[in-house]
Every structure is written in C-alpha cells, then in structure tokens.
Amino acid sequence: MAFDFDRKDRTAFDLSGKVVVVVGAGQSPGPGMGNGRAISILAARHGAEIVAADVNVASARETVDLIRAEGGRAYAVPADVAKKEDCQRIFDTAMRTSGRVDGMVYSVATNPPFDSETNSMTVENFNYGINVNMLGCYYCNLFAAGCMEKNDGDTTGSIVNISSIASVKNELGLNIGIMPYALGKAGLNQITELTAVQFAEAGIRANTLMLGPIDSALANRETQSLFGVDADEAAARHSEVVKLRMGRATVWESAYAALYLLADESRFMTGQQIRLDGGATLVR
Cα separation of 79 and 90, whole Å? Predict the structure, then answer.
C-alpha cells in the first residue's frame, strides 16, 4: 500500500474505514474523564468506528452516546477482562458486527481493595488485579492480532497497550496496594514486546503507551485510596513527580498519543515503550 505522507492536502491521523476496539472505554466513578473514554471519542472524531468494551456496560454506553452525539459510529460490548471468554467475545462481536478489527487499545487498570493498616490483601483480590492488569492484556492482544491477520496491506493493524510509570518506579516500596497494578503493568510491557515480535511479519504493530501523572478519574481516585489523602493532596502528589513545569497532563494528551500509534503515520514503529510522563522517569 502506498502512503501519501508528502501530499500537501493530506488529512493527518485519518482513521476513516478503520474499526478500533477500545477495551476500557467506560468511565471510572468520580469526577473527570478516563483515558479510555477520551481515546474512544478522539479516535471516532478521526473517522474510526469504535467498539467500546467495558465491565461496566452502562458506562461504555455513555461513551457510545457521546460519540454518536457528534455523528460518530460506536457500539458497546460488556466484558470482564479477567475472564478469557469475555476477552474472546469482544473480538467475536467486533468481527460479526463490523467485519474487521484495525486497532485495539487496552486501557484497563484496577487497584484491588487492601488493608492499609496491615498492608495486606486477600489472595482473591490480588489474583483479580493481576488478571485484569496483565492476563486480560495477553488475551486481548492475542485475539486482536488474530483478527488483524485477516486484513490486507503491508500494515494490517495496530495494538496500543496502556501502561504506567508505576511499572518502572518504586517509590511506594513494599505496599501491597500497588503491587497487582505495578506488577501487572510491568507484565503488560513485556506482553507488548512479545506481541510485536510474534506478529511483525503479519504487518501488525504493538506499542506501549506508558503514562505518568495524568489527570484522569481513575488516577485521582486510586491515589486517594493508596495514600489515604484527599483530592487536593492526591493532585499535589501527582504534580510533585513531574519535571516539566506545566504540571499534570490531561486525558486528551494521552488520547492524542494513542491516536498517533493507531494511525498510519506510526507505521514504522513497533515494540516501543513511549513514556508520556512529563519527565517523571528522567531520574529513577
């Protein structure tokens, strides 16, 4: 396929005709917006049909309604990514309804409940956290790639896995509350590289978008839980680690980074960990 990147009137980041599955397209409780919802809306604005998957299907439908209100195309799929069969159903539904999958964004995360006083967590909660943060990513990568292999062209699909600098920064020490999240995201980083190697010859790309202090609904709520602080203190703690003077990023900046990775403009990039962190990991 020839790309007209040099054309003066070319539309940048055009996803027209593409079907993008966003796993975690719903909205975490609390004020603000989540990365998955912002990515879904922005990709739809650039022409993609969105398959909005989330364990909270009512929230996914809210995302769909926002997209449709702007004239975009989207539909919701309920899925608990801790379950292999739910991950499979996402892509079976996409293929049955849309006929193809061109992009997949895994924007899912959880910090399971824990006892901060005793620094303890039940085995069930720990395992659930690993299943959501890591194992679900494995299955969604595998099933998404299986769909993308059916596409024509020299670039047949793009997978974007949302990670976190918690996978490489260790300031919290042996805090059981962050472990399923941090360990899961570290595993997600590796899953991305393995996916990129395995499916490169099929024209499928896989990259990690590693987020730092983003002003998202999930980040704000989970920081309050982990540290036992209020909303203002949680925001201050996030801003402390940013090296650039503009402070925390918005979910829209995450969405534009994901848009680049989904679009043909990034066709020569795969297996990379892109850090959108305001310089927070310049010094580890």
Answer: 7
2 part of a folded domain: no
The three-point CA angle 200-204-207 to 5° equals: 90
Rg over alpha carbons for the chain, rounded to the nearest Å, is 18
Q: Is residue 132 part of a domain?
A: yes
Bridge-based pairing of strands 204-211 and 157-164 is parallel
State the DSSP string of 196-255: HHHHGGGTEEEEEEEE-SEE-HHHHHHHHHHHT--HHHHHHHHHHT--STT-SEEHHHHH
For 165-203, the pLDDT digits (tens) are 999 987 777 889 899 999 999 999 999 999 999 999 999
With contact defined as beta carbons under 8 Å apart, do 18 and 45 qualify? no
Is 5 inside a domain boundary?
Answer: no
Per-residue pLDDT tens digits for 79-110: 999 999 999 999 999 999 999 999 999 999 99
Beta bridge pairs of residue 241: none
Distant-in-sequence contacts of 9-15, Cβ < 8 A, 24+ apart = 12/263, 12/265, 13/46, 13/259, 13/260, 13/263, 13/265, 14/46, 14/47, 14/263, 14/264, 15/43, 15/46, 15/47, 15/48, 15/102, 15/103, 15/259, 15/262, 15/263
pTM score of the predicted model: 0.91
The structural domain count of the chain equals 1
User: What CATH number has the domain bearing residue 141?
Assistant: 3.40.50.720
What domain range includes position 73? 17-274
Q: How far apart (Å, rounded) are the C-alpha atoms in residues 76 and 28?
A: 16
Which of 17, 39, 159 lies closest to 91 in space, CA to CA?
159
Instruction: Establish if 155 belongs to a structural domain.
Output: yes
